[in-house]
């Protein structure tokens, strides 16, 4: 067990009314950090106008501490990047599923924050160590990031969906 405190922000993907299953899998990946840290806090960030059902679903995911809501028409990565970058300093890890949405947004955030990105993470081996594919997926690499903030996309097929449980706090 490490003496670290981990704070994860997961950027939710949704269609305006339904939370994407891949977001639940990103929460599972984040929760795997628990075994390597003294404490872990997992928050979910939801962008979207009038998406109360998405916020409600996100607040019911087991292990989620709070749901942050940006009630806005912002749906493009360029606009989302600035906002996420502003609040990123509060977190040790930023995560999104490795979908078209996540692959569009997360590299922009990593570049703006001047940190590397860990793409298509398929296993968690520590608060700073993951396994990800290389060579067009023909090999796997165990990668350690020394960046103070880890920016990851999570390969959804490698993780189970997080269970739904009690309601978290929405802000």
User: Structural class, please?
Assistant: alpha/beta
Q: Unreliable runs, pLDDT <50, ≥5 residues?
A: none
Beta-strand percentage range: 25-35%
Q: Kindly state the percentage of residues in helix.
A: 25-40%
Q: Which value, in Å, is the CA radius of gyration?
A: 15 Å
Widest beta sheet: strand line-up: 5-9-4-1-2-3-10
Number of strands: 10
The coarse silhouette is globular
- First and last CA, distance: 31 Å
Helix and strand string, N-terminal first? EHEHEHEHEEEEEE
User: Largest sheet, if any?
Assistant: 7 strands, parallel
**How many helices in DSSP terms?**
4
What's the mean pLDDT score?
93
Describe the structure.
This protein has 171 residues and is of the alpha/beta class. Strand 6 (123-124) and strand 7 (129-134) form a beta hairpin. Helices cover 26% and strands 32% of the residues. It has 4 helices and 10 strands; from the N terminus they run βαβαβαβαββββββ.
């Amino acid at each position: 067990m490490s003496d670290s405190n981990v704070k994860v922000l997961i950027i939710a993907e949704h269609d305006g009314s339904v939370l994407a299953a891949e977001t639940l899998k990103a929460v599972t990946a984040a929760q795997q950090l628990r075994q390597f840290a003294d404490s872990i806090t997992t928050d979910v960030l939801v962008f979207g106008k009038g998406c109360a059902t998405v916020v409600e679903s996100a607040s019911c995911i087991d292990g989620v501490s709070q749901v942050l809501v940006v009630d806005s028409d912002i749906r493009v990565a360029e606009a989302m990047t600035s906002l996420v970058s502003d609040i990123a300093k509060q977190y040790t890890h930023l995560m999104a599923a490795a979908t078209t949405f996540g692959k569009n947004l997360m590299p922009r955030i990593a570049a703006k924050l001047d940190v590397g990105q860990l793409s298509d993470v398929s296993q968690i081996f520590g608060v700073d160590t993951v396994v990800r594919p290389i060579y067009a997926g023909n090999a796997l690499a165990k990668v350690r990031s020394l960046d103070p903030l880890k920016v990851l996309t999570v390969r959804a097929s490698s993780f189970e969906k997080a269970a739904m449980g009690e309601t978290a706090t929405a802000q």
